[in-house]
Design goal:
The chain has about 50 residues and is mainly α. Helix content is about 70%, strand content about 0%.
C-alpha cells in the first residue's frame, strides 16, 4: 500500500525550506548581536 504525500508536488519545496531553517537556527549568533542582547537584558532587569 502506497502512502500519499500530504504535500504533493510541494514536498521538495517543504524539504528545502526545512533544511534552510535547520541551517539557520544552528548558526552561531554573531558576537555583536549577542552583546546587544546582553545589554538589553541588563537594561530590562535594572528597570524592574
Amino acid at each position: 500500500m502506497r502512502r500519499e504525500d500530504p504535500l504533493g508536488s510541494n514536498s521538495e519545496i517543504a524539504r528545502r525550506l526545512k533544511q534552510y531553517y535547520d541551517d539557520l537556527v544552528s548558526e552561531e549568533i554573531p558576537d555583536r548581536f549577542a552583546d546587544l542582547l546582553s545589554k538589553l537584558e541588563q537594561a530590562e532587569s535594572s528597570k524592574g
